[in-house]
Specification:
This protein is α+β, with helices and mostly antiparallel strands. Helices cover 30% and strands 20% of the residues. The protein contains two helices and three strands; from the N terminus they run H-H-E-E-E. The protein has a three-stranded antiparallel sheet with strand order 1-2-3. It is elongated and about 80 Å long.
Length: 89
């Protein structure tokens, strides 16, 4: 085997191993912010909680994701009305 072929083969193996190890890492996501954790500090999972976001208050529920502290998770926003649905007046 020529030296350049040996180097190329080594680089190919190293690249494959590095790629596999990077793909095996869990996706990282930021944890809950301090205000969300503090709002549930004295509450139990499933309890109602409130967060302030910019100029408004958001209602939510105290929940803990795997490996994270109990924190206030805002309720999802309401779905928009479809064209077939109209608000009652």
């Amino acid at each position: 085997m020529r030296p350049s072929s040996r180097i190329q083969a080594t680089l190919t193996v190293v690249t494959a191993l590095l790629s596999a190890s990077v793909l095996a890492l869990p996706a990282s996501r930021p944890g809950p912010d301090l205000e969300a954790v503090q709002s549930c500090a004295t509450k139990s999972p499933g309890a109602a909680c409130e967060l302030s976001h910019q100029t408004r208050a958001l209602e939510g529920t105290c929940q803990a994701r795997e490996g994270e502290a109990l924190a206030c998770r805002p309720a999802p926003p309401p779905r928009p009305l479809s064209r077939k649905q109209t608000p009652e007046e």
